[in-house]
Amino acid sequence: MKTELLEQLGLNLTKTAQTRLNDFLMALKAYNSHTNLVSRHDEQFLFEKHIYDSLAINLFFKKYGLEKFRMLDIGTGGGFPAVPVAIFYDSCPILAIDSISKKIGFVEMVQKLLGLENLTPASKRAEDLLFSDKESFDVATSRAVAQLNTLLEYSVPYLKVGGYFVAYKAQTADEEIENAQNALNTLNAKVVDVIEYSLPNLEDHTRKLIIVKKTGKTPSKYPRKSGNAKKYPL
To answer: Is the pTM value of this prediction over 0.90?
Structure first.
């Protein structure tokens, strides 16, 4: 595995992190052979497209000085970015949710395999999280789940005022930001940064982290009941 590339993201790879990343990738390949977690076309680029991409959030952590945080990963799928982040920030509690139980089943298996005591997987939709989860997270993330205006309703209600939502995007980032202005205004949030980076060893793989800061309390009606944020985005 090309883990030396992670130094580009400001990450210090300990032996424990190296072992956990290797074990995670081996488990992912084995599970993906019978249950679709990532595209089969991506298997030869699992490190670049999924591990490195997930850990690009460290560019945000370093720039904004975040070392301790409580994080919510929405639509974690095969554990991205939750598992790689949990490996490197093993003192930070991370809740990883997904509505597809077989995917969370894999993340639960990985959590036990790697001994990630800071990672809590749960088979839930964002709209169905507990009322006590509102305004309680420092950081929320989502990768390859939905359009930004929908993601904002999934994430912003659960952030503390002053917390950040980090959306992993590519070519559509600017357009999605423009289309999300009503959602941003409604939910009391604003885009404060867009961090651009490139995936190594791949052509035309420029990626962007859209950084959204919560500026005030979310109106209590959000998030709306399951499905509404996607069917009728703000």
So the answer is: yes
